[in-house]
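Tip: read the tokens left to right.
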């Protein structure tokens, strides 16, 4: 288990910055050494995306779509307050995982392959079905894929600058030791 101070040190960011991220992304805020590696992983992912020039608004939009998609697929089977973070940090089968939560949908992420009636757990019956209320997993998946692909395009465009910056920082550090 980690404290906020542990995560701040690991991520090289002030604790107040991490608290701000927790607040804006509606991550659980705890006291003491009660954070798991999954919570560190999601903060690391957000910080890396921000470092690579992805706007916080774009990440927040993707986060909201991922959570909505997971809710529509009834992924919350554990009752855990961090159910949407439980897969963060997983790296196997990356093509089948959502970008931020790393939840594995069990198939490549395309609209054609997802089963609209997919249900990862039993839930109490609602008065109206989500589709009747205007919520549809395929619609949310389409929005998610658009946003994810936009972010991936931005990352690909920024990658040459990242390589150049890394090379420059290496050159500067080698020529100015200490």
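Filled-in amino acids:
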């Amino acid at each position: 288990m980690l404290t906020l101070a542990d995560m701040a040190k690991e991520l090289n960011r002030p604790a107040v910055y991490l608290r701000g991220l927790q607040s804006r992304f509606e991550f659980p805020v705890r006291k003491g050494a009660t954070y798991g590696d999954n919570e560190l992983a999601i903060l690391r992912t957000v910080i890396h995306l921000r470092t690579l020039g992805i706007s916080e608004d774009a990440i927040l939009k993707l986060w909201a779509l991922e959570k909505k998609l997971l809710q529509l697929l009834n992924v919350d089977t554990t009752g855990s307050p961090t159910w949407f973070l439980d897969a963060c940090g997983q790296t196997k089968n990356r093509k089948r995982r959502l970008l931020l939560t790393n939840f594995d949908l069990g198939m490549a992420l395309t609209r054609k392959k997802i089963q609209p009636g997919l249900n990862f757990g039993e839930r109490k019956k609602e008065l109206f079905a989500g589709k009747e209320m205007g919520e549809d997993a395929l619609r949310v998946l389409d929005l998610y894929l658009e946003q994810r692909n936009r972010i991936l395009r931005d990352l690909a465009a920024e990658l040459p600058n990242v390589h150049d910056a890394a090379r420059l920082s290496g050159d500067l550090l080698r020529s100015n030791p200490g």
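Residues 137-175 form the longest helix (39 residues). The mean pLDDT is 85.
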